[in-house]
């Protein structure tokens, strides 16, 4: 018989015995009433004795011993009604706890129940429905509309719109372009698309999440063991008080009354119920916790250790700038590089192609493409030989040295583009900081983290630049996996420590920390297996949500146990003085136990914590302006390109300057004005501070001032380009606009747009 059925049967038998006994008593059939009430008491006495024996075998002195004494005592002093009430109390407490555990695990077991079972695999006669276990890497699959992606793979033949809400908590569908990787377990929210399998079902992301769900268990939480430790003093105190009540009054019934009101077996189940509720709540936020112990430890952590790449940063390179040599424009350089790199599988090539598409570079076709490992890619574009990759030997110039120095200052990687043996330009790439990283760290500090450490294998200058932006307390750069383990151990000796990482090299450090957290969306299988907590969505802010849930669950668990014990002590004193007879005491204790267990279930409900709630209209506006930011970023690159083109000034710079002015006038300034009129008033109300957006408004004013100054320069331009007296101020104006807009965009994305799409 399952625990659920057993608890229901146990409750049904004890309630039936109590009801029948009371009815028979009212009908005057006291003899039969006593027999029925005794039977109900004996039914509960057996399981209670078993719970005591089980606790002793596990090395614990459980307070279930008090229940055994209370049941036996009620039989000994002929308080059969009290015994039947205690039996119902025990059964109802177990039933409530079983309900709490089943409700808490519902979100986790739902992951297993909705696991993909079938796939549509292309064969000679078209798609055929097969068992998902038959899918092999390389198979071409059809994913119909409304069905689940069965295995990890790459989108083929068009784009895919996927609903990831059940797996990650994201409320809006996510679009994936052709060639992008998708995970199993998400639902096709758009039209049917083809998928090239890259893993088997057992190796896919969803199977890993299911394995994590199966490992979840609430009973091992330290806070639950704290509840067990109540027995160390509560049981002797109860026996002492019961003995004194009997000795001083000479009435054994008083001792039984003390034992009855001191029966807190269901009460102490409130602690695991609260922890289990917290596990459920975390799962709904896209956080799988591998047990109550990890959740409870997360709730009182004081030090946070983070890897950099893929944790604080996006984990993939992005084009941050394109510098064009004389005779080329940045857009031309990007278009030529993308034409060659479209045939390459290199991660830098994918970033260059993505940037070219986003910035509207002219789509060019390359032929005779050849990839040279460790060097780059070459191909023919419109009759010209284009090379993309490392700088060719023998090519060097003051301009190239200047670009290398600039890349070093920006901690950026360089990809050189040459055309027919001459340098056309250089593309700078960098792993960008996550937009939600700054806000997440501030939330974690507000939740109790007082030390943030970065452990990374990356170069010191790169790590320091990220740490400076995010306000990290201490940086350990160029660390090997062994050094990472040593660093985590050192921090763990000072305070309870949480380690967050995503790579294979992070797995040993994750296993070393009191709580290891893996970025499971794109992290390695090794880090996911080694971690205690897995963020199933690629959002760092889910860690702050998990810590909020952990702290609240722990607080509610301790509160439930402590308040319940306190109320029991008051009732015990009253019973010892003769103020509460056994039957009334049983009813009183039943009320106390039910109340605290229901209080423990509060941990399952949403709470604000350190998270700012965003209403739907404001969330929609944030997402709208965030998308506009992405579309406007190429305009920022134009500003710097135009400024660079003024050295030396020439008529060729005129079209670029006018284009910059058009982008400012028709795209950037209307965007800033719309933010001022539509978004900022809502943010002021959301943040409950009309002054919250003042600094951003001041940036808008500066952008308008510089744009107006640029406009006056454009009107003064001659046919031969800028006048000599304009050059310095025009260049300063362009660089100033680029700097202000870049900073302003970054501030808005961190402070405001990182709030978008958070879901519940």
From TrEMBL:
Q: Name one GO cellular component term.
A: plasma membrane
Q: What is the lineage of its organism?
A: Bacteria, Bacillati, Actinomycetota, Actinomycetes, Streptosporangiales
Keyword Cell division in the entry? The reply is no
Q: Name one GO molecular function term.
A: ATP hydrolysis activity
| Coiled-coil region(s) | none
Domain of life per record: Bacteria
Identify its protein family: Belongs to the cation transport ATPase (P-type) (TC 3.A.3) family. Type IB subfamily.
Q: Under which name does UniProt file this protein?
A: Heavy metal-(Cd/Co/Hg/Pb/Zn)-translocating P-type ATPase
Cite the P-type ATPase A domain residue spans from the record.
115-213
